[in-house]
UniProtKB/TrEMBL annotation:
SUPFAM superfamilies: PLP-dependent transferases
Annotated keywords: Aminotransferase, Decarboxylase, Lyase, Pyridoxal phosphate, Transferase
Listed Basic and acidic residues bias regions: 120-132
Source organism of this protein record: Arthrobacter ramosus
InterPro entries named among the record's database cross-references: LL-DAP_aminotransferase, Orn/Lys/Arg_deCO2ase_major_dom, Prn/Lys/Arg_de-COase_C, PyrdxlP-dep_Trfase, PyrdxlP-dep_Trfase_major
Domain Orn/Lys/Arg decarboxylase C-terminal residue range list: 851-914
Residue stretches in coiled coil: none
GO MF terms, alphabetically ordered: transaminase activity
Name of the protein in question: Aminotransferase class I/II-fold pyridoxal phosphate-dependent enzyme
């Protein structure tokens, strides 16, 4: 039986338009089909006698809801629902079913290209005969307050331009108002282009749900522009903020020559009303441009050509596999196309990753466009390598880098290789759950001001942070960069967005990505009003002076040093102030590394580096090229590169839909856990209040998206940290089972549920763009089965068994030894006592000297530390979980670190010898 549309999904009542339309719409069509099927069956059982004309209450409730929703879709559209209502009121239930079922299948995603039957014969006649392989279909939003007759005439004019050779097919969605255009873009991901016509009105006549109305009020402000041209420009800007990948076109009646000069940035093209053919061709050309995947196409074409292979790759063209007596099953398993596409050739339409000039160069340009970067590069051996490339390109031996100690191990190894002076920043701890959050902005500012006071600010080169963290904590990226640039105008930023590649394709997520934040700052810095804000802040700060010290863009050696007049008291004022940088001095030098394969479509190890660096050509192009050469294989996997190209194509067309869906599905899991009487007895999904301390939040919602897009938008605008709603940290302490055991013995071995990360008392679940509603239902079902298992086990325990279980639960729900902050580097690896940075490279290679290291057990180390000896780690020690180095070369080992290590219950610790203990420098 189909599930009824749930009121908790903000489905509204009657004809209200909800925000979670994709699920409400699918459920409404499916349930309507179920209800009408029951009516048809009842009619059949009564011998063909039709029941009373009054429709059941459920059907009467769903029809106005679907009429409101389908206004924003071309297919099936509002007229389709109105015709369906007529058929139902006439009790023609078999005919009604023939209208409902194909739509329900298509809306549910079972047949994306199916054409539902049309109740309008004239509209049916407009359809072009589909080729054997159905054309890709999209919808075009027309924004104009026009009559039904004018709408039909416009549709007929455009459809008359269709040709059998067209690669794509489109249908029109017509809305009359500014607000309806925004709602359509929010709800309908099939829209890929917008045509603005001057006749649209400001406000919607539709009944909108509270969430949609709240979002519109927040997004659009209190009033919309009244002048037609201002309204057109404002709508174009707002549509671009929501979905920048969309093609925008303007159709004007007069004076387009004058408009063209002022509107070319907002619109792809401007037309007169009579230019139907040109508009039609432009719509198709815009889609074709995004659809192009040049490197995938090149690999595809190569695989279809006959070739003679005389290079060092026996597997190429399947040569060593297909006719093998012993490994022919390899080809049977992976398929012939994979083998035909394998090559080390860089010509014949293919390209070289190390020196791209053709299809691969074009693919990377398309990626830069999609992700909002100045330059994007493909990486075939993961974000670990991407991080090493960026660090090596920016940092020289002796440069100071501020970095989250909790970051991925690739950063620590990269900094060791670069010979940088590493200054670790501590994230706020979540001791109850045994993992860290993120680094507070105040801590970053304090570290920069400490270097300024020590006269070493000019040595600080880069800030490296993880956004978002493994556990889903997301920074306010724009604010972090803005305030840091107020202190250090030429600071370089590396944002490790390994788990955040999807975020650039949703309007709320996007604002906290590195590339979008950089573009926003670039726009702000170009605004004369921003310079006035900076000047006004300097006047308000008064005696504290310029946060950037001596005012040199590069940060001179005397910045903030002795005699600068900037002391600790003034530093405290700067810490409490939201700083505004000098736009004339600040340089935007921002790098983002993304594991495309982790959150978007790509083969394993497919990653990208995105760059927005104003000084790239002058300061970093050559060193970046050398770093890229250092770490990139001369034999890259072409299938990974082709998948990156296709992953980019996918998110430019359907990224918004997929990201919204993955977040909504995660919320549905959280709601199921919170509502089910047995699940909530053993499990709890941690929310914002659990994962982000109150001092870092202005809003106060536990799960903002659960309360609607408007609530999520508010939190993501105002709070210092937010939680990615697609990450679900499930607290399992009340089960009495630790996270590692729960992951392996219960989830994976028993039910095939795969998860990435656990802590002592939690398991991290992630939805992604490939997660289905069926997978969500299966997970909830498994959790219920496990809860029933725990319930049965508990009821069968003896008194001693109950006591043992209470002990296990107490251990998992009480606070363990606190997570250790970074202790310090040993004095011999530091430059001075005032600043914390250390030379990891020197410590790492000291361990290469004969007799410089010795192994000690934890007990022996504890005894020596208690006796006052300084014990220094010779290697990286990385337990999984938490998955970051608890010790790095040159770090002083403390009692707190040993206590934390002894409390860990994990199967995997890199850099630690279970038999010999810790490796320590003794020289």
């Amino acid at each position: 039986m189909a599930a009824r549309p749930n009121a908790d999904d903000d489905s509204g009542s009657g004809g209200e338009v909800p925000s979670s339309a994709w699920r409400v719409r699918a459920d409404a069509w499916e349930f309507l089909g179920y209800a009408v099927k029951q009516l048809a069956a009842a009619t059949s059982r009564s011998g063909g006698v039709r029941p009373p004309r009054e429709l059941p209450r459920d059907v009467r409730r769903l029809l106005p809801l679907l009429e409101s929703l389908e206004m924003y879709w071309a297919s099936p559209g509002q007229q389709y629902v109105m015709e369906l209502r007529r058929v139902l009121e006439a009790a023609e239930y078999p005919e009604a079913l023939s209208l409902i079922e194909p739509v329900a299948r298509r809306v549910a995603g079972h047949n994306q290209h199916a054409q539902e039957p049309s109740p309008d014969p004239e509209r049916e006649a407009d359809r072009v005969e589909e080729p054997a392989e159905a054309r890709k279909r999209f919808e075009v939003l027309v924004i104009d307050d026009i009559s039904s007759a004018d709408r039909e005439a416009l549709q007929a004019e455009l459809f008359s331009q269709r040709r059998p050779a067209d690669a794509f097919n489109y249908e029109l969605v017509c809305v009359p108002s500014f607000e309806d255009a925004i709602v359509a873009i929010l709800l309908n991901p099939d829209i890929q282009a917008c045509v603005l016509r001057p006749g649209f009105v400001p406000n919607s006549r539709q009944r909108l749900s509270r969430d949609v109305r709240s979002f519109l009020d927040r997004f659009l402000g209190k009033s919309l522009p009244q002048r037609p041209l201002d309204r057109i420009l404002s709508l174009a800007e707002k549509l671009g903020q929501l979905r920048p990948e969309l093609d925008l076109y303007l159709v004007a009646g007069v004076g387009i020559e004058e408009l063209a000069g002022s509107l070319t940035r907002q619109f792809r093209r401007i037309f007169r009303r009579q230019d139907g053919l040109e508009l039609h061709l432009s719509l198709l050309a815009g889609i074709a441009e995004r659809y192009e995947a040049p490197f995938f196409h090149a690999v595809q074409q190569y695989s279809r050509k006959p070739a003679g292979v005389f290079h060092a790759l026996p597997v190429s063209r399947g040569g060593s596999v297909i006719h093998s007596k012993w490994i022919n099953d390899l080809g049977e398993f992976y398929g012939l196309n994979l083998l035909l596409a394998e090559t080390s050739a860089t010509s014949g339409g293919l390209d070289s990753l190390l020196d791209p000039r053709g299809s691969l160069k074009q693919a990377q340009k398309l990626a830069a466009r999609a992700f909002g970067a100045q330059k994007s590069l493909f990486v075939t051996n993961g974000t670990s390598t991407a991080n090493k490339i960026v660090h090596q390109s920016i940092l020289a031996p002796g440069d100071v880098v501020l970095v989250d100690r909790n970051c991925h191990k690739s950063h620590h190894y990269a900094l060791m290789l670069a010979g940088a002076q590493v200054s670790y920043l501590d994230a706020y701890p979540l001791n109850d759950f045994s993992f860290y959050g993120a680094v507070p902005l105040e801590s970053i500012k304090r570290m920069l001001l400490d270097y300024r006071r020590a006269g070493r600010l000019h040595e600080v080169k880069m800030l490296a942070l993880t956004n978002c963290t493994f556990d889903g904590i997301v920074y306010d990226v724009e604010r972090v960069m803005e305030e840091c640039l107020a202190i250090k105008p030429d600071l370089v930023f590396l944002w490790d967005e390994a788990w955040f590649a999807f975020a650039g394709f949703h309007h709320i997520y996007r604002r906290r990505t590195a590339m979008a934040s950089t573009r926003s700052l670039e726009k702000s810095f170009a605004d004369p009003a921003y310079a006035r804000r900076h000047a006004e802040q300097l006047r308000e700060l008064g005696a504290a002076g310029d946060p950037a010290g001596g005012g040199q863009a590069g940060g001179g050696p005397d910045d903030g040093g002795p005699g600068s007049g900037v002391g600790p008291v003034n530093d405290e004022l700067l810490l409490k102030t939201r700083l505004v940088p000098d736009p004339a001095k600040a340089r935007l030098r921002v790098y983002s590394t993304q594991s495309t394969h982790k959150t978007l479509t790509s083969l394993r190890q497919g990653s990208m580096i995105h760059i927005h660096d104003q000084d790239f050509g002058q300061l970093n192009e050559e060193s970046f090229r050398e770093a890229y050469m250092t770490h990139t294989s001369t034999s890259p996997n072409y299938q990974i590169l082709a998948s990156l190209d296709m992953g980019r194509r996918q998110v430019e067309f359907e990224g918004y839909e997929l990201v919204q869906r993955q977040a909504d599905l995660a919320v549905s899991i959280a709601q199921a856990v919170a509502r089910h009487p047995l699940l909530k007895k053993y499990f709890r999904v941690l929310g914002t209040k659990d994962l982000i301390p109150a001092q870092y939040r202005e809003t106060n919602r536990q799960m903002p998206l659960r309360d609607g897009l408007a609530a999520m938008s508010e939190a993501w605008e105002r709070d210092e940290f937010v939680v990615d709603p697609s990450r679900l940290t499930l607290h399992i302490g009340l089960t009495g089972v630790d996270g590692d055991t729960f992951k392996h013995d219960y989830l994976m071995d028993k039910y095939g549920i795969q998860v990435n990360k656990t802590s002592r008392n939690s398991v991290l679940f992630m939805t992604n763009i490939g997660t289905s509603r069926s997978a969500v239902a299966y997970l909830v079902e498994v959790l219920v089965k496990l809860a029933e298992t725990f319930e049965d086990e508990q009821s069968g325990l003896s008194g001693l068994g109950q006591r043992a279980r209470r002990t296990r639960v107490a251990a998992l729900t009480s606070t363990p030894p606190p997570l250790p902050d970074f202790s310090r580097f040993a004095e011999r690896f530091r430059k001075d006592a005032e600043t914390p940075d250390g030379n990891m490279r020197a410590a790492y290679f000291e361990s290469y000297k004969a007799g410089s290291c010795e192994y000690f057990s934890a007990a022996e180390l504890a005894r020596r530390i208690a006796a006052g000896e300084e014990m220094v780690s010779a290697s990286f020690v990385t337990p999984y979980p938490p998955g970051f180095p608890v010790l790095v070369p040159g770090q002083v080992i403390t009692e707190e670190i040993l206590s934390f290590m002894s409390a860990l219950d994990t199967r995997e610790i890199h850099g630690f010898n279970a038999e010999l203990g810790f490796r320590v420098l003794t020289g």
